[in-house]
Amino acid sequence: MLILDVVSVLIWALVHEAVLLEVSFAAPYVQLQEIRVRAWFGRIQQVLSVKHKPAEDQELFRLMEEIISITKEVIKVMDTFGAGECLWHSSVLPGASLSRRDSGGVGKNVVVGFDKDLEEIKTRWIDDSSKLEIISIVGMGGIGKTTLARQIYDDPSIFYHFDTRGWVAVSQEYSLRQVLLGLLDSTKMLTEEMQDESDPRLAEFLYKCLKGRRYLIVMDDIWDIDIWDAVRRLFPDDSNGSRVLLTTRLSDVAVYANSSSRLHQMRFLNEADSWNLLCKKVFGEKDCPPELEDVGREIARNCGGLPLAIVVIGGLLYKDSRTWRNWRSIAENLNSILSKDDEQCLEILGLSYNRLPHRLKPCFLYMGVFPEDSEIPVSKLINLWAAEGFLKPSTSKTLEEVAEEYLKDLIERSLLLVCKRSCNGRIKTCNIHDLLRDVCVRNAQKENFLHVVNWYGDLTEAGNRRRRRVSIHPDALYANTTHQLISSYSHARSYLCTGKSLTYPSLVYLGFRLLRVLDIILIHFSEFPSDIIRLFHLRYLGFTYNGPLPPSISKLRNLQTVVHHNWTFGKYHLLPIEIWTMPNLRHLYCMPSCLPDPVGEILANNFVVLENLQTLLDVRNFRCSKNILKRIPNLKKLGISYDVSSQAYVDRWQFNLESLANLHQLETLKIIIKNDPYRTSKFVNPPKLSFPRKLNRLTLSGCGLPWERMTIVGLLPCLEVLKLKKDACRGQEWETVEEQFCRLKYLLLEELDLVQWRTKEAPFPRLQSLIIRSCFRLREIPSAIGDITTLQMIELVDCHPSAVTWAKQIQEEQESMANEDLKVCIELKRRIKDRFSSRILR
């Protein structure tokens, strides 16, 4: 044991001084000694792996003497050149990697914001199982994957923990031979003889070099599963805690490498870390001058948390004049500066675009249509893709299902970001980083795919008029000559007005005869723009007009999506009966409107089934008659509302809501019944309800159902989201029983008169979120709720203090059982507290 202790101490001393610290002017010498020490260390391991004999002991003493001799030589060289000339042994990488000696910020090796990531991975690597593990770092280009991997690779505790380390950059264009040579070289096992060997021999050498050792291998920037298939068998699993780290932009590659291990998803830097990185890049260890701090923080914030963007702009600020006026100008023109002054930045990001399959390229380029920092509704994006013809039809899938697959693919490639998810986990909104959007715009212009008009001057460039799609900012519409200039875009197939606010332009040109997409929802028309009716090829129409759709809308036989906003609050219009003669309609968002019964001379001899119609939203006083429902058999999403404030109106109106069960493809349903808040008889005759078995999301408001009738909802086999809002149910007691709500994941109770909620054992077996808002009379939450193993969150807003106490008790009980996943959120708004504390909460 004494021999082992001495050898380990000597080796650690040598490694710590001569490998982590690389001596300036003597680096090749130290690297040579590192190779020799590693070779000796391997021989020592081989000796120690067999039963000790006197001969082996003598071999150990001989090796130890050699190591001592080399250690003395290295220390002598270090003394000669001085410790002050030592450099950290790390590569200079794009992101936040800078050289230590540099007096300024540009040369400084700065890594900011990865402390938690580093500790998380180190803990998993060192403390987890002894089996071979493959861990993947995933994120978009420039987010710092390589920088984090290098930080891990060079960490002293990681270095000491592993016997052998190897690093290879794979990249898009790779060869198996170069990868094998890179791994052998980085593990210090490569000899001159090996360089002439065949790929199978190199693979054999690598396997033998790693066999029996605890190794760390980093494969940086993997784009393809083929290279992983070629090398995975070369990593032996000797149950000694070896690790393989992959960095990639593609989630599917990471999952393919090891589906059983969770991915490490890179996060954007927060504002504090962004500012810290920018400061260190520009000022080094010095402080930022006070007069530059505000504008500097704005610049850092506008980089969107992307380390690559922060480092690029930091290099510009380091070299440029450090005055407030100059920094103010940079802050106002940040994206254009990044685009023009650092081609390498966009090239790094553009690699992901170059690797896209042809079917995804137009979908990605289309993201340039939307303004910077836009939160894009996925439903709108999918409808636009469909109208543009980007989606390949499938016999087994709808266009919307194909689009969701495309969207998921772009997200997995780290090109799009998820902003919000719906209650059942589906993506609700997404966005794109500003620099990636610049990649979209630049490539779209290069390929004549899209022209983005941010201001009037963009319209005057003649070369832009050949492009098929025009995305124009509302501000550019105010110029007097805009009408004439836009009319010159004769090749346009799509015309979109994008921005964040409504506008009232004096002139809007709508004479594009070949137009497929017209999205001018931000333009507020006082009269219906009749030019729209001439756009025969139109597939997507979005506009704002305070009046009804004209019957002539039916002439647009190719229309798939209609989005009609009506800002006359409290008033709604009747849709034209001709709407029933448009068989290609897929989505109808007419807010708010009444849908007429399909009767009369127009439809007498023209029975049309709207087989493609999937979405029908914000329809007032919808009659669920058989004549209507049989014309929309494939409806998937329905939003309807009724105004029953007048008692006479209630008596003569027949809801026929039980007929909704005949919509066999319906997945999302929202029913709102608006009652007179002062009428006490509003719940005398609650509507009869029946639902289709495929229903996945259900929202009820104002229906006044007795709690006993909730059984029909609880027995729905596919229901995952249930929202019971104001007066959805009546009564003071609700008792839930077993074998109901078997798949429910999200439950919202809002503004209900519920007082007592009882439940048997094992309620809601898959519930993840329980939200209770403004249920002032509810005093207890069933304790059995805490026993739901899938429950992740209980949120109470403006609830009785007793209910709050129960929620906290549930959380404490779960924590005592080592269940820390359950989060309890409590919120009591001041106005609610003042209003109800004396009357309700007694």
From TrEMBL:
GO terms for molecular function: ADP binding; ATP binding. The keyword Transmembrane does not apply. GO terms for biological process: defense response to virus; plant-type hypersensitive response. Transmembrane segments: none annotated. Residues 1-17 form the signal peptide. Pfam families: LRR_14 (PF23598), NB-ARC (PF00931), WHD_DRP (PF23559). Its main location: cytoplasm. One of its GO terms (cellular component) is cytoplasm. Residues 492-701 form the Disease resistance R13L4/SHOC-2-like LRR domain. It comes from the Eukaryota. Residues 115-287 form the NB-ARC domain. It is found in: Cytoplasm. InterPro entries: Apaf_helical, Disease_R_plants, LRR_dom_sf, LRR_R13L4/SHOC2-like, NB-ARC, P-loop_NTPase, WH-like_DNA-bd_sf, WHD_DRP. Keywords: ATP-binding, Cytoplasm, Hypersensitive response, Leucine-rich repeat, Nucleotide-binding, Plant defense, Repeat, Signal. The keyword Repeat applies. Belongs to the disease resistance NB-LRR family. Confers resistance to late blight (Phytophthora infestans) races carrying the avirulence gene Avr1. Resistance proteins guard the plant against pathogens that contain an appropriate avirulence protein via an indirect interaction with this avirulence protein. That triggers a defense system including the hypersensitive response, which restricts the pathogen growth. This is Late blight resistance protein homolog R1B-14. It comes from Sesamum indicum (Oriental sesame). The gene is LOC105157404.
